[in-house]
Structure formats: structure tokens, C-alpha cells
Specification:
The structure is a homodimer of 566-residue chains. The first copy, chain A, is α/β, with parallel strands linked by helices and 566 residues long. In chain A, 27% of the residues lie in helices and 26% in strands.
Chain lengths: 566, 566
């Protein structure tokens, strides 16, 4: 072998690329490490950009600074990391046989061939922007890089009209950011819910309510048709249902992996449309690795390929590529699709599979929907969270969770993500020694509450209906008895339309007054009493009983308020 | 068998007892369930009492109300749960052969024998109060039940003097509560640190700093000798080192299990001094079960018996006893010693074993101490947390964690508790797909940062010293070079005494100016740059190098501040 230091070329200088370079240098002080970056900014936190625009991050440059305030630019990487970075330099093509990368310097059009012993593709992703009319008008922008954030920032003006196209993570974060800056915000979503593919529709309904309560003009099932402007500036957005004044349009329709370089070089592309890699992040060429947003992931629960670009995954990738390039055993097992998003006062999280996805993947899913206060309920700061857990009926193993609420959601999502990583059963989850102190949790953690409710359902102690299941039955006009087992005070404050009041304390005495031929659906505020009622009804010989999961708190649709005849 | 419903007697009506009763009724609508309770209050949340006293919970009765405001009294349990509760009724003795419980009604001294088919001991715990002089003076109180809280509340008066004896969980919660009510608070702790047995001493030092910053008069290594008073009221507390004016004294010296009933009946008591049970919560008598604070636990990591009474454990016990009594397969695997406590602006948590305990248990522990911001560092609300992870060198399995800081601690403790429950390795922890969004976490979660730092240490990439290890070397006068690799600005703001400044960006150029025969200890704010410096020094042929874990942020002892010659 040659005595020259090996040459490692990295295409892409944001998350995965710079992480790979930095770790590589720490493991190998000799290698010649060169990073090619088409843009000018390196190693910036793209996920933080909505928070620059909301001014929760003080200034744009913060997203490319280290925690101690150093800008991560070429000089930083050269001095501190001994890594050469070529910015404004585009990779044009790969000669895999000769191990050469063709690059072009964008400022002077100069072209060059760079030799590599190992090539790492960290080419990232780009926003999906369909070719509708008006997409190039000033004031129309997708949010991807720092330049986009700077351009959007120029267009933020109190009381001006912003239209956000797409109700995914970035769309929702931008809705909050622009609203917080005083803009009038319309959010267009093609589907009948925001966070489609992330939240079940009844949980998404809680997000809709929050968006509307905070003044967002939410337009569901409205696809963007055209953006109109004058003198090159945006003025209006039209859909099949109407048109909306717009001084600023944010296109938030999702991301696509940058695979062209890989594809033209004949590297294998996975079914998700991103670059296919093995567990060691190696592409179909043994001298080429890939990491970050351009790479296809594997879902740990159903072992299926998927595309979900995230900075957290990119950082893990980078470390693994560097380790593998230095002969250390390292592999990336896959992802759980864990996502968190703050939507005004709601925290929203998902990890693992939804029941629907689980069914499509061959599982026999059973779910529960269980709200709880996030800590001891009498603490002044206690806030509810609404938890849906899904498991496989046969194995009793966890498959996924969705949690929404003003309370502490992220903790519970991370606990479930951890449990999912170790193939936990619902029975194991219920017994984990989670931390308990009144400011942080309740003696029964919300996850334990939910796990036990699900075990009760699995074990035949109490059948139950999700809010969506009950809504569907009501919409179909099914005959059933909605039995509100709360107190008269609670009932007269807020209630489900058509429900009959019978406080739990009176149920044992009056149980025989209820019909036996109708499905009885007891519920309370969060359906702990609803569950209790099912047990009492069962004991009294009623077998057509199923409580409403989540009770009044979890019901996202119409409620009646104010004085009621009790 | 008899056709009569079986009789289940439960001694103790707080957490484990009432949980057992409630679940039992839901599983068995026929059984005659009777609960004996010596006091008058049922099913109250004792852990919440400090928060009643701090007024974060509105009124005392809240701790025995359901989330919807119903008081859980005898009538509630009778009507809603069909459970008979005898309050002010003391269990005197068990005739195990005849399956009879002798009880006495405290109000009228009436005695009675109650027959049982199954007996559940949920006798709880009581505060440890050694027999020092003055313990019975008015104004001297341990905090256990609602009566104690009511009595303490009467003695809270702004500017009056409170002395808290004991720096454990309750002592610290009470220090914060009483301070928040305007009292002058002195905290006496016999040992040289608070939270002894929970936090390592260098982490406890951060808690000491917070207590002092918030105005608590912290007296370490001072044991209570005597409480003095006049006219039956407390006035003064004396230790070997001084005396302290006292209008209110809180005794917070720990809890002891109430085992007398079990012991006198000849049931087996474990080495921890609490009632011994098997995995099904059954005592050494096959007709007697035990649950909650009177029961010995088993630590899941070292499989050793321990005593750690907690409401969360009691609730799990109750469910399991009820299940077992109804023939359902159920067992309690053990605990991790997970604890959380809020100390003013610090969140503190522990789960699993400390390195010291791990060593005593036969492991070969390796620890890391790694601070991180709790979310994207540029977010306005980002706050640091200081994480210590401990693993076993041979198996690379997690053994425990301690985390302290103003940032989000509870989430990370719960993730580690979950990982510990599934025997996770540090390598697995580093790759869990934890939730990432700027308001909740960073692209590299603090746990991933810590896990990777520990993997680097294990794999020989960088040796390091904990703050305590460095302190010990400095105290011994060991010759070493403290190398501050931060910027001149950071250095002149705050620094470790005696450290030499050499910013990381200049290290590669000036590396040969450093001595090779002295241990070099690089560090920065949180020692990410410190680690980087180790790698650069290694590459330059230095082998006596170990970075300071936690850097300036993690250093709990003296720091120099203000202008310095650079």
C-alpha cells in the first residue's frame, strides 16, 4: 500500500458531512479530508430555522455557531479540525472506476478532478416544490437553508398576510413562528388533517383545534392551484375553494433526497427514492458511503425502507461512517420514525408505527387512547397529555405511540422510543421504574396509566372505543347509550351531545335501569371512571359495554357547554 | 370450597392498600373487601405534601381528591368501589393458623376479630425519629401524613426560623417550600453532602451551590444534638458546632417500614429491615401478601435487597397483589432506585447504581460526566444538564445515571431507567431514535453526547478525569498542567484557578510548546473542545493527557472571575 495519507472526500458540508469529517479527523490524524459544499454555509442547524424566524433564536448566524459562539466556517474547520472545506463547489460526477470526483467551483466555473480513496455522499435533501404557476415570485419560498430563512425574514411584517402551503412539521412550526410575529396566517393542507402520516385523525383534530384557537386560518382539503403576483411579487394564492391574499408564501410540502450524483454514478437507489446503504452506511460501491438526508432508512419495527430526513439521524450516520472508515465496528440499526413538534401550546410526538401502518405491516394492532395529567394532578402546573399506545395483540409488544397535549409529551415519547428499541412488551412498560416526584410525574405515570388501560383491554376486562370509532358509529346513526358517569357539576359545565348523566357513585344502585340490548358507552373526564363503570356493568350482567377512550378531555369534536338539565 | 364470597382483608388504606382494594373490586365483583386504616385519611398522596406547604397545591385536601375533585373517603370507596373501609382501626395481631386479624377501634377501644381468606399488609412506613431531647416540643415535626402537614402549616410564618434536619429528598423539598414562604431556613446534614447515597459528591456540590444561592443556610457535617424550647415550644436547635434559633423544626431523617405486625406474626423480614416478599408479593405465609412502603425491594441491576419506599412502587405493588389474588399471572421484577427531586432551580435525578455501588456489587464500572444544553443551544430557553453515566467495562452495559441541572433532567432519567430495564449497552443507547426538535432536544441528545463520550473513553480515544478525580489530584498537590482551550473572552470571564490558556484553534500550531512529562488536562466550557484537544495532543505524540469531564460548567468548586491576564 502507499505511504501517502489516504484521501477522503465528503460531498456535503452540513450535518452528516461535517460530523463525518470531524469524527474522522479525531480517529485518523493523517488522512487528507476534504469536504465539497455547494453552498456557503457549513454545519448549520436547519431544523432551528423556524425558531430564528420566531425570534426564539436571537440571530440567524446562531444556527451555525458552536455552543460557545464560534462560527463553524471554513477557517474553523481548517484550524480546529484540520479539515479542508471547499465551498461554492459542486460535485458534477463520479468516476467510480478511477475513484475520481469531478467538481466545479461555482464562482469561477473552474472544473477539477479530485481523487479519493473513500467517498462519502452527504448531499442532503431539498424541498419538494411542484411546478405550479407563480412559484418563482418574490415572497414565495421554501425553507431549507440559511438563505431561505434570511429571505423569509425580510418578508415578515406584522398584519401582512402569510400563506403556508402544507401542514407538516415545517408548515406547523412556520405557522406558529409567523403568527408570533404578528402576521395573519393561512395554512393550506391538501389532506383532511395536518400531520398526515404522523398522527391519527382524532389526535390531529386536537392540533386543528389548537391552530384555530391561536388564530391560524386552517384550510383543510385545499390544494394550492396557483400563486399570483404583480411586478414579480406574490399577491394571492388560489385553491379550488377560494383565494387568499398573500404577502409571503411558505412552501412546506416535504423534502426529497438529493440523489442525482449517486444515481448518475449508478449507485443503488432504494424503494423510498433515497440512496440505499447497508448497515455500515456503505452504498452499492464499496468505496462510497452515504449519510444523512440523502439516505434511505429502515424502520426498526416493520423492517421496511422509508425516507425520513432528520438532523438527529444525520449526526448518528456521520459518526458511524467515520468509525467504519477507520476500521471500527459500527452499524446503524435503523429508525423508529420518532418525531416531535411544538404547535403553539401543544406538544406533539410520534414514535413507531400507527395502528394503520402496523396492520399494513402484518401486525394485529390493538390501541388505547388514554389522557392523564402530566404530573400530580393537583400541582398548579399540571397539564394533560393524550397518549395513544399501539401494541401487537399476539406478542403484546409495543408497536408505537402518538402523544399530544399541553403537558410534558417529549419525555414519554422518548421512553416509548427506548422501549421500542428493546422490543418491550406492554407488560414490561407498565412496570418500568420511571422517576416519580410531584413536579415531574404522578405516582402512576401517564405511560403506566395508558399501559394498564391497554392491558385491561387486551385481557378482556373492558372493551373500549377510540374517539374516532365512536364518532364513526354516531355518524352512521348507530343506536347506543352514551353514559356520562361524571358529577352533575362536571356535566353542566361541558358534555358530549346526547349523553345521559348517571354519576358513578349512583351506578351500582341504579344499574338495573339501563337497557341491556343497547351498546352502553360510559365515559367521564378521562375515562378512568368510564372504565370503572364498565366493570360495574359487567358485574351486573351487562355485556354490551365499551367505554369511550379519553372521555370528554380526549373528544376533539363538538361539545355542549353551559347549564344543562341534569 | 365455600359458596360464600371470599374475605380479603387489607391493612393500610393509603397508596398500596387502596390500589389493591380498587383493582380487586374491578377484577372480582363478589369478594368481601375490607380495609383497616389506623388514621382517618385514605388514599392520599403523601409525596405531594411539601407542595401543599409551598402552596403549589392549593389546599391540603387536594392530596386526597381524585382528578375531578372527589374526596377519596370511606363513602367514596363504599359507593364507587364497593369496598368497606374501617378508619381509626388498628391491626393488633394476626392469628395465621386460624386466619384471623385482631383489630382495635381507636375511638372506643373496641376490639374485634376479623376472619380472612387472604390478608394484605400495606402498613406503610413512618419517619425515622431518633430519641434526641426535645423531639416532642411543639413546632417539631416529621412530615409523613396529612396531620403533619396541617401542623407544619400552622407554624409557617414569614421571617421566622425554620431548621430542617436531614438533606434527603423531603429535607430538600421542605427547604424550598419553607423558603418560598419567606422563612429563614437552616438545613442540617450530618454527612458532608446532601442526597448522600443518591448523588456522587461532585454532583451534590452543584446542589449545595444552588441551596446557598437561594439563601438556604446549609450546614454540612452537623448532626442534631438537642432541640431546646420553652413552655413546650421549640426555640433552638443545637449541634456540636453551634446553635440555631428555631420556630419550626422539620425532622427529615428518612423512613422506616412498619413491620411490627408482620414481625410479631413471624413473617420473614428481609435484610433491609422490610417485609420480605416473593415476585408475586407474597410473604412467607401463603395467605398473606404485602405491598407498598412496608415491603423490601430488589434492585434490578445488582439483584440485591434494598429499602426504598415510593408511591410509584406502591401503586405497582397494589395492582400486582390484586391480580395475583385473582389468579392472574403477575409479578414485580424489582426497582432501579429511580428518584427525582426538584431543588429550587435545579432538577435532580438518579437511576440505577452509582460507580461506587456498582464496584461493591462486583462490576467494573466506568463513568463519564458530560454536560450539555437540554435542547438546541441557541434556543432562548435552553438550559444545561450535567449527566453522569456509569457502565460496566466488560459488558458495556448501562449500570446507572445521575443527572443534575436547570434543564430537562426527568426525561433523560426516564430514558435511562427504560434502557436499564432492558439491559441496554452504551452502544445501543447511543443509537436510540430519540425525539428531536429544537424546543425539546438537540440533534445530538445530551444522552447521546454522554454515551458517545463514554464510548470514546472506553475505546481508548480519550482518557478523562471527573471533577472529583481532578480535585483530589489538585488537593494532593500532584503536578499537572490544566490546559484551558477556550477563547480569551471565555477565559477572562470565568476560569479554573491555575489553568493555562491555549485556545483550541492555536493548539495544532503550538502543540510542541507543551511539556511531555506532565499530565496535561485540557478542558473547555463543557469539554467537547477538551476532548478535541486530547485527540490533537495524542496525534502529536503526547500520551499523558486526560481531559476534565464537564469542563468549567461541571466544576462545582472555586472558580476565578473577572479580568485576567491572558
Amino acid at each position: 500500500m502507499s505511504t501517502e495519507p489516504r484521501k477522503i472526500l465528503i460531498v456535503g458540508g452540513v450535518a452528516a458531512g461535517m460530523k463525518t469529517a470531524s469524527r474522522l479527523r479525531r480517529l485518523d490524524s493523517e488522512a487528507k479530508i476534504t469536504v465539497i459544499e455547494r453552498g456557503v454555509h457549513l454545519s448549520y442547524g436547519a431544523c432551528a430555522l423556524p425558531y430564528v424566524l420566531s425570534e426564539e433564536i436571537e440571530e440567524l448566524d446562531e444556527v451555525r455557531k458552536t455552543a460557545n459562539g464560534t462560527v463553524r466556517d471554513e477557517a474553523f474547520f481548517s484550524m480546529v479540525k484540520d479539515v479542508d472545506v471547499l465551498t461554492r463547489c459542486e460535485a458534477l460526477g463520479i468516476d467510480r472506476e478511477k475513484q475520481l470526483l469531478d467538481v466545479k467551483f461555482l464562482d469561477d466555473e473552474r472544473q477539477q478532478q479530485l481523487a479519493y480513496d473513500a467517498l462519502v455522499l452527504a448531499t442532503g435533501s431539498r424541498p419538494l416544490v411542484p411546478p405550479f404557476p407563480g412559484r418563482d415570485l418574490a415572497g414565495v419560498r421554501a425553507l431549507k437553508g440559511m438563505e431561505d430563512a434570511a429571505e423569509i425574514a425580510k418578508n415578515i411584517k406584522s398584519n401582512n398576510h402569510a400563506v403556508i402551503v402544507g401542514g407538516g412539521l415545517i408548515g406547523l412550526e412556520m405557522a406558529e413562528a409567523l403568527k408570533s410575529r404578528g402576521m395573519d396566517v393561512t395554512l393550506l393542507e391538501m389532506q383532511d388533517q395536518v400531520l398526515a402520516g404522523i398522527l391519527d385523525s382524532d389526535l390531529a383534530e386536537h392540533v386543528h383545534r389548537e391552530l384555530r384557537n391561536k388564530g391560524i386560518k386552517l384550510r383543510l382539503q385545499e390544494a394550492l392551484q396557483e400563486i399570483r403576483g404583480e411586478n414579480g411579487r406574490v399577491q394571492q394564492v388560489t385553491t379550488a375553494k377560494g383565494s387568499y391574499a398573500a404577502d409571503l408564501v411558505i412552501l412546506a410540502l416535504g423534502a426529497r433526497p438529493n440523489i442525482e450524483l449517486a444515481q448518475e454514478a449508478g449507485l443503488e437507489i432504494g424503494p423510498s427514492g433515497a440512496i440505499k446503504v447497508n448497515k455500515h452506511m456503505q452504498t452499492s460501491d464499496q468505496n462510497i458511503w452515504a449519510a444523512g438526508d440523502c439516505v434511505e432508512s429502515r424502520h426498526l419495527i416493520n423492517d421496511q425502507p422509508m425516507y425520513l430526513p432528520l438532523g438527529s439521524t444525520a449526526n448518528k450516520h456521520g459518526r458511524i461512517v467515520a468509525d467504519v472508515l477507520c476500521g471500527k465496528p459500527a452499524n446503524f440499526p435503523g429508525i423508529l420514525g420518532t418525531l416531535l413538534v411544538k404547535v403553539f401550546g401543544l406538544n406533539v410526538g410520534r414514535t413507531g408505527l400507527s395502528a394503520e401502518k402496523a396492520r399494513q405491516s402484518g401486525f394485529d394492532p390493538v390501541s388505547i387512547f388514554a389522557p392523564s395529567p402530566d404530573r400530580v394532578h393537583s400541582m398548579r402546573d399540571a397539564r394533560p397529555i393524550l397518549t395513544r399506545l399501539t401494541i401487537d395483540r399476539h406478542s403484546r409488544k409495543l408497536l408505537g405511540a402518538q402523544i399530544v397535549g399541553p403537558g410534558e409529551v417529549a419525555k414519554r415519547i422518548d421512553v416509548i422510543a427506548t422501549a421500542l428499541s428493546f422490543d418491550a412488551s406492554i407488560d414490561q412498560l407498565a412496570k418500568i421504574d420511571l422517576g416519580y416526584a410531584p413536579p415531574f410525574s404522578a405516582a402512576m405515570d401517564p405511560l403506566h396509566q395508558a399501559a394498564n388501560a391497554l392491558r385491561n383491554k387486551l385481557d378482556g376486562l373492558a372493551d373500549s372505543l377510540s374517539p374516532l370509532q365512536l364518532k364513526q358509529q354516531l355518524d352512521l346513526g348507530k343506536k347506543l347509550l352514551l353514559l356520562d358517569v361524571r358529577s352533575p357539576d362536571e356535566y353542566s359545565e361541558v358534555r358530549l351531545p346526547g349523553a345521559m348523566l348517571l354519576p358513578l357513585g349512583q351506578l351500582r344502585a341504579k344499574v338495573n335501569e339501563l337497557p341491556k340490548d343497547t351498546l352502553i358507552v360510559p365515559f367521564c373526564k378521562i375515562s378512568l371512571r368510564g372504565y370503572e363503570a364498565v366493570r360495574i356493568l359487567h358485574a351486573a350482567g351487562y355485556d354490551k359495554v365499551a367505554y369511550l377512550e379519553g372521555g370528554v378531555l380526549g373528544w376533539p369534536w363538538q361539545l355542549e357547554r353551559g347549564a344543562a338539565e341534569v
